[in-house]
Specification:
It contains eight helices and no strands. The chain has 207 residues and is an all-alpha fold.
Length: 207
């Protein structure tokens, strides 16, 4: 994996982490209701859930690649198309985020457990990883180290983004409660997803 290709992945996974979703909602709610210590527990739980998804995707894709190069190539194209489809779906989404349903007080252990479940029960997370990873795996290079680099990058980026969401929670939460603001955010990130999907497909065709 070249540094240029890694930077492309870094940009893509940053867009994923910044895109408003269950993890961001959980982090903002915890930041507002439980302060710094509660937020640390919550973000740690999110990363445990995310890491488990990364391991599952890495094992599954590694097995698939070892059995069929054609299947792996088909999955790469399907992944690029999925990114475009996801962008279209997010572009068309609307509505406001409701933080009040997650604002009840609870101990840090419960916050950690809840955050783990938030990511583990989010099917979009594992599907997105399964669609994204094949775009950046170079077949003739050792796969384990490539999956490790992608996985560590994903977790570190998500930690940084979640800290940002928690730090700015009181300001961001009040702004995105409105449906018009949320619709704008969905269109921004939906457009970014579509651009990334098209760029990945185009880059693959030219190689």
């Amino acid at each position: 994996m070249t540094i240029e290709w890694w930077l492309t992945y870094l940009l893509t996974t940053t867009i994923l982490s910044l895109s408003p979703g269950s993890g961001a909602i959980n982090t903002m709610s915890t930041g507002i209701s439980h302060g710094y210590r509660g937020t640390v527990a919550s973000i740690s739980g999110l990363q445990v859930g995310l890491s488990l998804h990364i391991v599952l995707v890495g094992i599954g894709l590694g097995t698939l690649f070892s059995q069929s190069l054609l299947a792996f190539e088909i999955l790469k194209w399907a992944g690029a198309l999925y990114l475009v489809w996801l962008g279209i779906q997010q572009w068309r989404s609307s509505g406001a985020i409701n933080l009040s349903t997650l604002s009840q007080t609870m101990p840090r252990r419960r916050l950690f457990q809840r955050a783990v479940l938030v990511n583990l029960t989010n099917p979009k997370s594992i599907v997105f990883l399964a669609a994204l990873f094949p775009q950046f795996i170079i077949p003739h290079q050792p796969q384990a180290i490539q999956y490790l680099v992608l996985g560590v990058t994903t977790v570190i980026v998500d930690i940084i983004v979640m800290i940002g969401y928690a730090t700015l929670a009181t300001r961001i939460a009040g702004w995105i409660k409105g449906p018009h603001q949320m619709k704008l955010l969905n269109r921004i990130f939906g457009g970014l997803f579509m651009v990334v999907g098209v760029l990945l497909a185009s880059a693959r065709r030219s190689t």
